[in-house]
Write a structure and sequence with these properties.
heterodimer, A: 214 residues, alpha+beta, four-stranded mixed β-sheet, B: 213 residues
């Protein structure tokens, strides 16, 4: 019988990476289940029940309930596991943190996932993923930079870690490593990212530290 | 929070799905607000004029007590917490997670794939393809997922028999002018049933774009 939380994750999935950080920050013990997106395991019949939206992350609770969507999962974890709160108390600040997360979640990431690439590659021979994503990110990162300029301290919002940081690090790490984005064009993003990425809870969550890393 | 001296302004464009979600939320919470119309089809949110007013250049943006809030989901959560009358989220964290997953399926799984900048990005690479052809597979995927969630958890509305934030996201995802021409509601029976129930509620009534100043 399942005792711990079970997280369906792929090492390079930015959305899974966010939840790995959240679980580490809250010191929640979990069992990872690795889903190889490149091999299409998220779409297999075997995973039909486990991954109801054919995507990672999926969080399985001990009672069998399955949660999907990284923002919904993060909100659930922050409420049920109150140690190391990731959303501020102040309602306006809380809204700004959520707004920042959504900028990444719905404003950027949908255009750089496998669904996007697999579709467009049916139409375009020699499709340059890097060029495509750079074009998306160069304007979205400007908005992110503006938001950070208004709100940052050591971290995205002041000097306490928030959910915004759990979304920022995977997005920036992926942008640099996979899409060759020049992060020096966004000095505040770069500064906050550098303050976060080597913290142990963030480091241990990164793709190359995962057991399924290839 | 007392509503007697609140100044609420919504940067919006009538009929478009994302700002419509917020408009529905404000009406469900019985909050008076001033709409400020930004011509989204003409990309007015990117204009210099608008950037003076709203440096984020994003619609929807909610101005409340002098603060600018962006992102419909963040705004929805703020309104739910600050104006507790007419609860729009269930009590338990688990049920809230299910409602939120419905909202997010729309917010990040459907809406990005009928946004005008999505078409711009694609048309940089594939020129001889129209919006229906571009959006169709993405929308089918998103609406199929949403239909499954509502089939499992819905009743009269998206989640059980009470209106929740999920309805404020689901309804414009079909009836919004930026998406209604792209999707056939008949393909999604669980969603169709809910949408038709929501058609009856005054808070969800369509506001024609021509009625903005």
């Amino acid at each position: 019988m399942q005792q711990k939380l079970r997280l369906y994750t792929y090492f390079r999935s930015s959305t899974s990476h966010r939840i790995r950080i959240v679980l580490n920050l809250k010191e929640i013990d979990y069992e990872p289940k690795f889903v190889n997106l490149l091999q299409g395991e998220h779409k297999s019949e075997d995973n039909k029940q486990e991954l109801p939206n054919q995507a990672v992350p999926a969080l399985h609770l001990p009672d069998g309930t399955i949660l999907i969507e990284s923002m919904a999962i993060a909100e659930y974890l922050d409420e049920v596991y109150p140690q190391k709160k990731l959303l501020p108390q102040d309602p306006v600040l809380k809204a700004k943190v959520r707004g920042f997360c959504e900028l990444i979640n719905s404003g950027m990431h949908p255009y750089q996932n496998l669904i996007m690439f697999e579709w467009i590659e049916k139409y375009v021979e020699k499709f340059d993923r890097v060029e495509f994503v750079q074009n998306v990110l160069k304007s979205e990162f400007q908005t992110m930079e503006k938001l950070l300029l208004q709100n940052h301290g050591k971290y995205s919002f002041g000097d306490e870690i928030t959910l915004a940081d759990c979304f920022l690090v995977p997005q920036v790490m992926g942008a640099i490593a996979r899409f060759k984005l020049d992060i020096t064009l966004f000095p505040t993003i770069q500064e906050v990212y550098n303050n976060l990425k080597d913290l142990p809870q963030f480091y241990k969550a990164q793709p190359d530290q995962q057991p399924d890393f290839k | 929070m007392s509503t007697s001296r609140l100044a609420i302004r919504l940067y919006t464009y009538r009929g478009y799905s994302a700002p419509w979600r917020v408009s529905i939320m404000l009406k469900l919470k019985q909050l008076q607000f001033q709409p400020f119309f930004v011509n989204l089809p003409k990309a007015e949110q990117l204009s210099n004029m608008y950037s003076q007013i709203n440096p984020l250049q994003i619609v929807p943006t909610l101005e409340i007590n002098g603060q600018l809030l962006h992102e419909s989901m963040a705004i929805a959560e703020y309104l739910e917490e600050e104006f507790p009358r007419n609860k729009l989220l269930p009590k338990s964290p688990l049920e809230k997670a299910i409602v939120r997953s419905m909202c997010e399926t729309v917010n990040s799984g459907i809406h990005p794939y009928h946004a005008s900048r999505f078409y711009k990005y694609v048309h940089n690479y594939v020129s001889d393809i129209n919006r229906q052809e571009i959006s169709e597979p993405f929308l089918e995927r998103g609406f199929t997922a949403l239909n499954a969630l509502v089939e499992k958890h819905g009743g009269d509305y998206a989640f059980g028999n009470q209106v929740t934030i999920a309805d404020a996201f689901l309804y414009p995802a079909f009836r919004g002018d930026d998406v209604s021409y792209l999707v056939n509601l008949d393909k999604y029976p669980a969603l169709k049933k809910v949408v038709e129930n929501l058609d009856q509620l005054p808070e969800f009534a369509y506001e024609h774009p021509d009625s903005q100043g």
